[in-house]
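Regression report. Comparing outputs from two consecutive submissions.

Submission 1:
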Amino acid sequence: MKQDRENINTMKMLAVQSITRAGSGHPGIAIDLAPTLYTLATRHLVVDPTSPKWINRDRLVLSAGHGSALLYSFLHLAGFDLSIEDLKAFRKLGSKTPGHPEFGIVPGVDATTGPLGQGLGMGIGMAMIQKRLEAQFGDLMSHDTFVIVGDGDLMEGVSHEVSEFAGNNNLNRLVVLYDSNDISLDGPTNRSFKTNVRQRFESYGFDTFLVEDGEDVDEIDTAITAAKKSNRPSFVEIRTVIGRGTPNEGTNKVHGAPLSWEEIEVLKDNLDWHHEDFEVPDAVRESFRKQVLNRGHQARLNWEESLHNSDQRSELLRSFAPVKLNANQLPHFEVGAKKNGRVFGKEVLNSIAEQIPNLIGGSADLVSSTKTEIDNGEMFDVNNPLGRNIPFGVHEFGMATILNGMALHGGVKVFGSTFTVFSDYMKGAIRLSALQKLPVIFVLTHDSIAVGSDGPTHQPVEQMAGLQSIPNLNVIRPGSPNEIVAAWKTAIESTDKPTVIILSRQDIEELETDNSAILLQSRGGYVSSFEHGQLSAILMANGTELPLAREVQNQLATNGVHVRVVSIPNQDIFMNQAASYRDSVLPDNQRCRIAIGMGSSLGWANLVGLDGDIIGMDSFGRSGDETDVESVFNFTVEDVVSEVEKMVMSNRKRLAS
């Protein structure tokens, strides 16, 4: 159809002109993917550009995020709040058209993508929640998830992890569209990639389809129609020619470098498209309005009428609303309560799960160790999409990307767990969680060298400091059972920040504290035990090192040295308190500060200051009994007492001089 071709060519030209004007970008995919995105958007995708957050819209994830210019062209033509001026500002500071799609910045973008492979995982997370909510609310949550991937996405290992999950759980409302052009940034993909991709996805449990001509709208439409009818997740390979119609078509030269204006003229001639730069013909605008905006707007109005008449309306809307816990229904542990940190964590999790029926999560095949199971929550699987416990398998990275997609979809509160040391596998997804302001909860157990005999491969050292360096991420390492309650409360009530809760395998104990009210306010740090004499030093700790600091305090007092013990379970929250509160905990005039932590010393530097000291780990651990390992690295009462006394004496000499 002639109008289809003009619409597609307009998408192509807006995209390549945006890229060339910006001086950087990826024109190849914008050209070869245009027919696929156009066909999907005008014949299948159900969205309402006037209400981009409509909860029953289809989800569209461009995992191949370097194709952002094409996505922005479509969003503009479809009627989303994205103007021609926004397209002209592509990749400019402060624009609504950043270099890669960003959730919350660009209207109509359902996920932040760019780090290849993660968009596929997020789309699978969305499809999983759709399956769950459809089982709960029927047609009120009946929609599809479309994910567009490229060769690079499928080279990344995470694509294996998440696709296996999708196939194993038969996420039948998921359609993956593969832009198969055989070219990556450095050259032909056959230099490093020889997988038969459709056979690979068949082995996961997908139905697969092939489109021979990626310019043929009808062939693409037929494949997507068949994919949507499948009772399994679907994978559609669409054969394309990268940069088709440009002087360097079919090569990597058109992958990641903007076209010159002369090359754009060649493309215009080959497309028979002769308009001014950034011009959109009236017929194109009207066609997109009818096929996308009007169709989607009417679908939303029909849905709202169904919602209004449904007796499930309040329950559905409540599941998408922010959560506020009833503090009176949370556990409170008495002084002397003593168990594994992870066991206390399970008690708190299950207490909260009773308040929040849409709290769901799982682990990377470690639930028996992390203790993150919702009792009587049943297992999520093909036959039970309402199960609250999700078996992610040994797929830490995949799990984290799926959790991000679940949070992006909405309608649930989500958590995932593994050992602290394995957070390294998840770091890229945790970073995207923070970047997208998603309130995902990551529970990490086995938190220090006290893991002991499992050895240095399983003893985290640098992980906590690394996590603390990620912007917009709550990192909480509780040192008592009630601190675990406060940590979970912070995590559950967060609306724009993910939370990492780090728990011990060894026992922790509820200690008598001078400031329990402060603790429950979740202010990130508080005085656990005041000095009982002239203040000589401040000891800071978190996690299982908090009781060690308290023992050191008692021993020092018998030697006539009086110190204050401060618990800092969450540095970020503490550092964002008012200066007056921080000074009440860490008096500015007391520069003799010692941090105790069985991890990298880097995490404490901003609190101890130049005059302070850190008793931490600057090497990997050792395999052995927990007590022996702690002794080797000087984490005993005697060792810490000796270090503190030396520092106090040195400080007194400095002040006297």
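Submission 2:
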Amino acid sequence: MTDETQDYVAWLLDRSMLMKARERARLYGGQSRLWAFPYAESRGRSASEMASVWFTAYPASLVTRPGQSVLAALGQHDLWHALSVLGVQGMHVGPTKEAGGLRGREKTPTIDGHFDRIGLDTDEEFGTSAEFSDISRMASVFSGIVIDDVIPSHTGKGADFRLAEMAYGDFPGLYHMVEIREDDWSLLPDVLEGRDSVNLGPVVVDALHEKGYIVGQLQRVIFLEPGVKDTDWSATAPVTGVDGKVRRWVYLHYFKEGQPALNWLDPSFAAQQLVIGDALHSLDVMGARGLRLDANGFLGIERRAGGPAWSESHPLSITGNQIIAGMVRKAGGFSFQELNLTVDDIAAMSRGGADLSYDFITRPAVQHALATGDTEFLRLMLRSVHQHGIDPASLIHAMQNHDEMTLELVHFWTTHATTPFFFKGQTMPGAMLREQIREIMYERLSGEHAPYNLRFVTNGIACTTASLAAAVLGLRDMDALTEDDIERIRKLHLLLVMFNALQPGVFAISGWDIVGALTLPPDEVASLMADGDTRWINRGAYDLMDLDPEATASSQGLPRARALYGSLREQLEQHDSFASRVRRVLTVRQATGLPGGHQRPIPDVIAPGLLVMLHDLPAGRGVQITALNFSAEPIDEQLILENVSAGPVVDLLNETLEGDVGEDGVLQIHLDPYEGLCMKVVGVAPHPTF
């Protein structure tokens, strides 16, 4: 090894996440604190008791005061006071640790919104690690908590990947990467000037598979974009190793080319060390109480004869998640998974794995209900939660997040492609049901009918909640919106809030939701969408606290989105604003103890647009009824309430009597278009809980 190479390797080792994780591990040996908490079983209800309403920040989109860091803005007393008034108890800050890559000694920018992590410390773009810790301290003033992120499936191309390319130590075992013999380099395409790798086409992947190098093509290509990402495999340019040998590697990346996948079953067990070290750093150094396990369903990959590689529903993913989640619980925290897989997989990975799961089960279904005015598919998905033994109180029912409105509907594409489902009066296989749902959603919520929403590769639609509502209402020109149009959008938006908030579990709301953000014009983020990632249009900048009303962009350079509702500060001063209406919903939610309630089986209804959910409230507080009208027509219907004793029914939001449950269990309700009711039956018969 030359002196120059030795110096560079030392520089990389000083920045390596794996090395820092190993250093942290030495602090825990022989100490008693990791035996103080139960850890073997998931504890969803205990996790939601810490904080059942979350604000989800996307740091790159936050408008701050001139010269103020994002993390300093998120730790402000005024912001936490306003969020507390709204009903928020926890803040999911979002990915703020160092991300991107390294080329030589030069840092390259993030290619996936800081989900391509290369360091354990806070990225200086957002502020300092001390400022992150200050957020945790401010949260405690308002009896709140802070939630951070761990990414178990991949990293960016930082120091760890560069050391792996140079075949240093056990770093190659950190990733799914394979050295290709020089006499087979002819199989690999050349790497273009200015790049460090090239995506491989299916023919090349098949050839490498036949030669025994790699496991081959995977079950699906996430973020498939012809000419940009054709498969999940890429090849590096020639790299000189620490031993002087020149190598080319082929490596796996479930997501973008700059996000090499970690190898969770290598004899070095380096991936486990890195991820656990990152998690403990967030809990013990940064002051977080909870951690999101991002993309945690892709930890296992295995060769299969006669078909694509086994890359989903793999037992190693379940085992890996149990290790991470168990370690987090051992350290006194909780975790949640943002896992867009089949309902079966979400259920399986919740047993001993993450304490909470993002509700990808009903999220596309409730958007379908709004788009069509029909709740049949939504009721089907709600029932699937019960059928697979998932406690609704262990789910995070979230509004918009940083991603697209997903329409993958993986449940009906992989495991249940041939499973029969009854829908619209006929029985059809899951794959056919999926295509019907997707076709309707794409047609009604994007394209010619809603040019401000864009398709996101093959996965869904890039939109905000407000632009989704606008599309449902047939509003094509966002520049021509009237006050009446905005009020109609607000009404649909609030209906989605009621669906997500008026059931057990965690309710999460984003800054985009609070201000009523619209999508950005594509030309304003054209450079960010060069690789086909249209999600940037739904990540516009927002100013929650009027910190810089004249700002045209966030401190990270994201253009400011048009906000239909105004800032949180402004809205809380208005009795009938969107935020004030949300506040009333959350106040009732907390007062009734609904987050800890038990959901009964989803009842049948007559009106296509009606959804009814019944919940047994804790400590014998009664039965709560959520009734929502997803259609543009009024609904008058008699509900048949089983195992509910006769008595008056209170409209909790308006503090009025809604009617009475008769001796026969009948309750007559009336709902205006897109209206919701939160009701409580006074006096109920005992009922077995979920």
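Expected: both submissions complete independently.
Actual: both completed, but the second showed a warning that disappeared on reload.
Relevant detail on submission 2: The domain at 598-681 is CATH 2.60.40.1180 (Immunoglobulin-like).
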